[in-house]
Design a protein that fits this description.
The structure holds two protein chains of two kinds.
Chain A: E1 4-9, H1 16-26, E2 29-34, E3 45-48, H2 68-78, E4 83-86, H3 88-95, E5 102-104, E6 112-120, E7 136-143, E8 147-149, H4 152-160, E9 164-169, E10 186-190, E11 196-199, H5 219-231
Parallel strand pairs in A: 1-2, 1-3, 3-4, 4-11
Antiparallel strand pairs in A: 5-8, 6-7, 6-9, 9-10, 10-11
Helix pairs in contact in A: 1-5
Chain B: E1 2-10, H1 17-28, E2 40-47, H2 53-67, E3 73-80
Antiparallel strand pairs in B: 1-2, 1-3
The chains are: A alpha/beta, B alpha+beta.
Pfam family, one (chain B): PurS
Subcellular location (chain B): Cytoplasm
Protein name (chain B): Phosphoribosylformylglycinamidine synthase subunit PurS
């Protein structure tokens, strides 16, 4: 049986097609999910893609969180279904309280678009098992509201439990690694169970040598979840 | 119709680069003497019915779950007197 990975389309989603393509390249079957449809159509995992859902009105991800499809995803995520939130999807996950903390406007107030070096801090999540802990990867980053924040207790908890999954790194001497003022250089985190992962950079844009910057470091997200689903 | 105003502000400990950008622009425009600026959001809610305790409680709930993200923002709820 083919593994089915759902990709949600909200009004204003931009990277849903790229995420579907990444799922297909990893060997799973992408399933388009519509924000107004509560039914997850028997998918085994869900990707919340990047973009500007509902125009980022109110706060990024704040309105999407109340969409019908999210009600089912929140339920299923709590039961262990793997969910990956990329960029705007990460913002939806924090607004849904599936992940702690919140995202703020970049500290320099500019939209940022660049290839970003990251360190995989936790290779034990549903979406990172194909990486090695400590592995350095390059993933495109493009956002306006990427500054991760949380209260000091939450940050301590995330650090102590190994739930900081990705950290921003400088790509060379003299470079600034942290692109937006994120606390502790946090680029991505996971929930306690490790099935829900959110990050600001876009792994679905780094899956083919032919397009983008030509890196394929992002493919591992999708092969990781496929492997986990096949093994269970 | 009764109006209830919900003001949402970033918590004091949260860096507000938008407010800082406004503050830095002010002296360039000749508006001196402003030491700090914080930028927030104001929601004006027009109620269909009267502003009673039940209505205010519902609005506080809406503010807490939706209008504000209490991880990063504080909010206040107040009734605005009707203009005569």
């Amino acid at each position: 049986m083919t593994t089915r990975v759902g990709v949600v389309t909200f009004p204003g989603s931009l990277d849903d097609r790229d995420a579907q393509r990444a799922v297909r390249l990893a060997g799973a079957e992408p399933v388009a999910l519509w924000h107004r449809d509560k039914d997850l159509h028997q998918v085994d995992a869900v990707v919340l893609p990047g973009g500007f859902s509902y125009g980022d009105y109110l706060r990024a991800g704040a309105i999407s969180r109340f969409s019908p499809v999210m009600q089912t995803i929140i339920e299923q995520a709590k039961l262990g279904m793997p969910v990956l939130g990329i960029c705007n999807g990460f913002q939806v996950l924090t607004e849904s309280h599936l992940l702690p903390g919140a995202m703020l406007r970049n500290n320099h107030l500019h939209f940022i678009c660049r290839e970003q070096k990251l360190r995989v801090e936790n290779a034990g999540t549903a979406w990172t098992s194909d990486y090695q802990a400590g592995q350095e990867i390059y993933i495109p980053l493009k956002n306006m509201d990427g500054r991760y924040t949380a209260d000091a207790r939450t940050i301590d908890e995330l650090e102590a439990e190994g739930r900081v999954v990705f950290r921003y790194l400088a790509s060379g001497p003299g470079e600034v690694g942290n692109p937006n003022g994120s606390l502790n250089d946090i680029a991505g985190i996971c929930n306690a169970a490790g099935n829900v992962v959110g990050l600001m950079p876009h792994p679905e844009h780094a899956v083919e040598p032919l397009v983008g910057t030509g890196g394929t470091d992002g493919l591992g997200f999708f092969t990781s979840v496929l492997k986990q689903l096949v093994n269970t | 119709m009764a109006r209830v105003v919900v003001d949402v502000m970033l918590k004091p400990e949260i860096l507000d680069p938008q407010g800082q950008a406004v503050q830095r622009a002010l002296p360039r425009l000749g508006f001196d003497g402003i030491a700090d600026v914080r930028q927030g959001k104001r929601f004006e809610l027009e109620l269909e019915g009267p502003v009673d305790d039940a209505a205010l409680a519902r609005i506080r709930e809406a503010a807490e779950t939706f209008l504000a993200n209490t991880v990063i923002e504080d909010f206040t709820v107040r009734i605005e007197e009707e203009a005569k």
